[in-house]
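To: structure desk
From: M.T.
Subject: fold request, one chain
Message: Could you run this one when you get a chance? Sequence is below, nothing fancy, just the single chain.
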Amino acid sequence: MDAKPYRAWLRCIEGCVDELPLEGFVYRCPRCDALLDVAHDVDALRGRSAAEWKALFDVRYKRTQWPYGSGVWGKKEWVAPGVDNDNVVSLDEGGTNLFWAERYGKTLELTELWIKMCGNSHTGSFKDLGMTVLVSVVNEMIKRAMPVRAVICASTGDTSASLAAYCAVAGIPAAVLLPRGKISTAQLVQPLANGARVLALDTDFDGCMAIVQQLSREPGIYLANSMNPLRLEGQKTISIEIAQQFDWEVPDWIIIPGGNLGNVSALAAGFTMMLELGLINKKPRIAVGQVAAANPLYRSFQRGFEGGLTPVQAEATQATAIQIGNPVSYPRAVRALRAYDGVVEQATENELADAAARADLAGLFTDPHTGVALAVLEKLVARRVIGRDDRVVVISTASGLKFTEFKVGYHERMLPGISAGYANRPIELPAVYEDVRRAVLGG
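Reply: Done. Structure tokens follow.
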């Protein structure tokens, strides 16, 4: 069935403007300046039963019919139904492994611990899920003769890599603003390799974001940060895919690292849509992990969200992708946490590094941001907020291969302020059989 009978549009999260087109250069409500959400014609979607939606999503999953084999575009009717299939820009995103972390879970006395490996994607992070939607809509705009001079973003690394790759596929100019010296080499080289115009600024992410928001007011400049709700439409398919991988059952807990906080509301949006259309019958609880060096949501949670967001000056952290002191999607995240009985916890540098190392000993190769989520998991289990028999899914947002400096520094005990209790160094020996034998066999 063609997706075109279904509709999606933008609306103000405060409710003062109900309908704006997806295609355009509007990222905030023109009346009250609040953030925007993507809305769907749920009544039209109810024309298919829950069983029919499940069957459709299952038959498309990881198949070859364009563009439905993508984990995002296999749910096209729920994401961006008006985009012509010929204008979809996809790199087969989604469809990532739900890894049963059995050995690591046993160390925490958890019966069911799963890691959603979103870093197993084209550019190595979950950002691909949202970027395919955003760049596809931009491609549709260009094909409709709307003037787009460039797509821009501020980034701590992963967003810039994803934007550059998808724009390169579509032949759309991309420009990215990065905080100079504050992202990994692997993250820096990705947008360079894909031909983006890369500006390394003497500021942090929040400073880059302030300039990007000014630039987005220039004619024909399109904003790609998660202030743009199109990004969240792709990311919400993580929730749908997790349910699908559990044969349409819902875990008890989802734990995700939070920086700019769009991913938190995206998770909730996916589960809410499945609830509205009858595919699931319960909600998970959501836990957000923040790094102690950049923890404005955690501080707000400690106040019961009273008084709103108080931005902080983000300090140096290994978790560079969430080194954000003034998160744009704070209002969306609070709404999601309230709706999903959510909690927020923080992790220190030592906690995130050791949690990543403990998980690695069970077969993972964990980036520092997933380390934050794992450290938070360990704290919530220790406090019995998470029960031993709860089914828990931790969202791994990026590939550890993008953070080799973090991994090498840990095992060489070179990371400042981190004790590296699980460091594993090579044993250097002469090429003598008996010496090697003793090292391997002991004694």
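Reply (cont.): The longest helix spans residues 127-143. Let me know if you need anything else for the meeting.
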